[in-house]
Amino acid sequence: MSNSKQITDPTSYKAIWNLAWPQILMMMFHFLIGFVDVWVAGQINSNVQAALGMISQTFLFFLVIAIAIGNGCVAGISQSIGAGLHKRAARYIGLVVLLGLTCGLIISGLGLCGRHIFLGILQTPEDIYSIALYFLKIYLLILPVYYLFVISNAVFRAKMMVFVPMRSIAIVALVNAIADLGFGLGWFGFPEFGYKGVAWATLISVSGGTIYNFWVLVGKGILVKNSFAPWRWMRSALPYLIKVAAPAGGTQVLWHTGYIVLFAIVASLPYNAVEALAGLAAGMRIESLLFLPAFAFNMTASILIGHFLGAGNKGEAKRVGLRILGTACGLMSIVAIGFWPFIEPMAKFLAPEAGVTIQAAVYLKYNIISIPFTVASMTLGGIMTGAGATIYNFWIYSSASWFVRLPVAYILGHLVFKDAEGVYIAMLVSQVFQSTTMFYIFMHRDWYRFSMIKRKNATAPAA
């Protein structure tokens, strides 16, 4: 299906689905990468699994800027293509590649210099300190390449070339699995290096995916010498990129720190705190599978909205936004209904201890009820990203987390119910608040103004 057909037929479910399904597969490969890492680490020993889990989760903070640049990349490039300004789109590609590499190198260097301080802040237990330090060191070494991987995938999504990132993440998943099992456990006749093999599997696999991406970028003539514009142009282009990327990065930081505080609230509950903490972790792992398609619709929304607004079609942007929103919420609600009878069996499978099983099941019940609201807010967040209106995501997501979810979780969890059920109710309440507020903004506010429509002399550089 051609790109032009996708853009000129905003009411087509086919156009949405043809962009969404490769990204659903892409998110499944992401899930498999983490699953294999955790499984192999567990086969080595519990210390390795604990160290890997801690570093993998906190490593997201090091990727915040890459994700933020990726959001700016999708908005700038998709809007430029929609406006027919292909030279400007090409220059944005060169700009985000240079910016990503520079930021990756700087953060990698700072992280390596302060890695002991970072582990101290995390209160890393002595039993796993040396293992965690090794994982952190390897992950920081690969960080510049990881930045290029994330940003190049965003470039392909902005250009509607969604099969390329799907293939690259498939390469990463396959290489990572082989290297994990081979170098981590000594399978396939490989030398067994234990946890060091698991760390190097990440380095090798991400490098492979990044090499593939740049092979396509260069081979297809997407990234060429002329993509790297003069400094005068980059200086005029940076403000819009930062305007989109800065709120996106701030959203990621506040959202992740909000989850850390939520874990602290659960860990300090008056009753059954340990079981609740284990149930929360198990429930979140099961729930993550359900939200993989929602992430795909988030990315699909950002792509299509950027193209429509770049072409100056506000009405069609809103129309296709509603179509994506209805499709995402409808499909995921059907999935939630189908999953409901399997809540307790799934909870028992992943958390076999009776007390933890109960906690995981309660978590899943409330969060599956919230699926229509969660999917709606995720899809609407993608719409705002495509429009460059990430400031709305920042304020609404952050407010939902810090001014609704966390206070209500403490009040219901510690003072009213005095167990984790109060926390899970708070999560549902915050998702209702978040989605309804986002929908109000989408329907009644001028979120289009953040795009580069008719602003080539103001907020966007000329081609």
UniProtKB/TrEMBL annotation:
Keyword Ion transport: yes
A GO MF term: antiporter activity
GO BP annotations listed: monoatomic ion transport
Topology in membrane: Multi-pass membrane protein
Keywords of the record: Antiport, Cell membrane, Ion transport, Membrane, Transmembrane, Transmembrane helix, Transport
GO CC list: plasma membrane
One matching Pfam family: MatE
NCBIfam families the record matches: matE (TIGR00797)
Name of the featured protein: Multidrug-efflux transporter
Annotated source species: Halodesulfovibrio aestuarii
Record lineage: Bacteria, Pseudomonadati, Thermodesulfobacteriota, Desulfovibrionia, Desulfovibrionales
